[in-house]
Amino acid sequence: MSADQHALLLDRGNLKRRNRFNKAVEVVSTVAAVLAVAVLVIVVGSVFLKGVGALSLHFLTTPTALFGESGGGISNAIVGSAIIVAIASVIAIPIGILIAIYTTEFAPPSIAHPVRFVLDILNGVPTIITGIFVFGLLVEGNHQSGFAASVALAIVMLPIVARTAQEVLTLVPSTLKEAANALGIAPWRSTVRITIPTAAGGLITGSLLAVARVAGETAPIILLSSIVSQGVLTDPGEPLASIPYFIFQSSESPSATAHTEAWAAALVLIAFVLVLNVVARAFYARSRKRMGA
Amino acid sequence: MDVSRDSTESAPMSEARPDPQTDPQTQSGFTAPTVAASGSAQGSTTRDRGVGTVELKQLNAYYGSTHAVRGVDLAFESDKVTAIIGPSGCGKSTLVRCINRMHEEIDGARADGQVVLDGLDLYDSRIDIVAVRRAVGMVFQKPNPFPTMSVFDNVVSGLRLTGASRGDIDDRGREALVGAGLWEEVKDRLKAPGVGLSGGQQQRLCIARALAVEPEVLLMDEPCSALDPVATLKIEELIGELKQRVTIVIVTHNMQQAARVADTTVFMLDGELIEVGPTDKLFTTPDDSRTEQYVTGKFG
Ligand SMILES: Nc1ncnc2c1ncn2[C@@H]1O[C@H](COP(=O)(O)OP(=O)(O)OP(=O)(O)O)[C@@H](O)[C@H]1O
Ligand SMILES: [Mg+2]
Fold this sequence. Notes:
The complex is a heterodimer. Chain A is an all-alpha fold. Chain A has 2 domains: 1-51; 57-292, MetI-like (MetI-like fold), CATH 1.10.3720. In chain A, 77% of the residues lie in helices and 0% in strands. Chain A contains 12 helices and no strands. The mean pLDDT of chain A is 92. Chain B is an alpha/beta fold. Chain B contains 11 helices and 10 strands. In chain B, helix 4 (151-160) packs across helix 5 (166-179), helix 4 (151-160) packs parallel to helix 7 and helix 7 packs parallel to helix 8. Classes of the chains: A mainly alpha, B alpha/beta. The complex binds adenosine-5'-triphosphate and magnesium ion (MG).
């Protein structure tokens, strides 16, 4: 090495500053990450502490008490939420996955790109707007129903399902599609029998995350399924109770017991969402392994 | 639904065969034996002489404006192994992918000229491209078994997903595994995942999968380059056995391999065919100086 080349390796006076800057960036980003975790811990922790006292088998298996009475539970809200979310899933998951299959496997880029863009916009639409839209479509001139709430939640789910499914389908190695192609397997058949099974784990992940995302959705529910009769109802043609609406309503109440019940219901909801997320991760890990990622 | 015969997708090759009255090929004295409609001569380990002959006539292939294969005229003989050698980027892969019409699957890629299989031009407008792939099988550089399928399901995937009748499947799957020299090794783990096999076994699994649909021609694009020497040797032995029943075209970077397995060797350079001849002649006394430079390691 010549002296000139040595000079290139030596401190040009700003080495200390650069090192300090690197250090600062590292610290700031670590703090940001810790903050995110802390927020989660604080939210889950406080919901747990405030709600666990009111949580009991009785609370989970008894319908909400009449207005002004205490001692009720959330069985009707659990059943209602389950029905609303199930119907939303039945609508949104197949359509979302079909959109993803079409755009990743068959559509030319000139169609796939605009579709992706539209899905991203749909994903950003505030849910209250979706709620009002469905209100105008199904409730106005008619009456509230669990089904109307399902339609709104399906609209919220659709872009989530479709976008995650697109991501997962593009991860399926092109070598598999090529192998199928070279065997003389028709494109639609290789999609159904090779691409989709290979991506199945990831498709399930996306769907579960979408379910978790809408399970707590409140704004459309207030508009579309909130004037609820007593008892455990199961007819989606009528307004159904739901956990998010129960939380909203109880927290509006002046009674302290009602507040604790709101926390307990919140605990049930957040536990459901966390479990779904963990299961979703497990499917995702399996799927990635399969695709050799 | 996997056993149903869908008329559009499993139309036998013979239906797409050009009408002898109007086909210029047959008029120019070219006799056209049937493209042995899948399943004919292949139950046994040999086939009729001369079946599975491929002729390239003025074949050109392009990627957009890149002219990757330039006016190649070449015949691949039945019962022979033909090796294609040449420096990286000379168009070997492109050439073989034109034979099963996989080349045009790439965006912006196209080909012209003729690829004549047993008298039938595979580039005729009446040809069912999907069916071409059943007559001309392909094995890739990296083993690519379907990850969701068991060993056996992988082997018969081509049969099941192209609508063969259910009764055949077990027998033909076993035959293909025997044919690919894999039966003894996997007969006790047919239901285990295909991706659980070793790399060499996976590659023979892919060969079995290609053989199961009983192609007339088998294209192999550097089939051993991801394998260790022992696994490579097994595949080379296998190629020697398979040539009785399927015309083999193998692309290789390994000249010893070409010398070991190939009857005929083709040397390509910059998309052009430079020389074709019996393997030992091409490696010892080639006609073209560029061939000599390449086989003696002077370039490439
Ligand atoms: N997908 C593609 N798009 C554009 N050009 C391509 C593509 N694939 C290959 N080419 C070009 O076509 C030419 C021939 O490529 P090809 O892959 O057939 O070469 P090869 O002989 O198989 O090389 P190797 O020995 O490295 O596999 C090269 O110039 C290459 O850059
Ligand atoms: Mg190549």
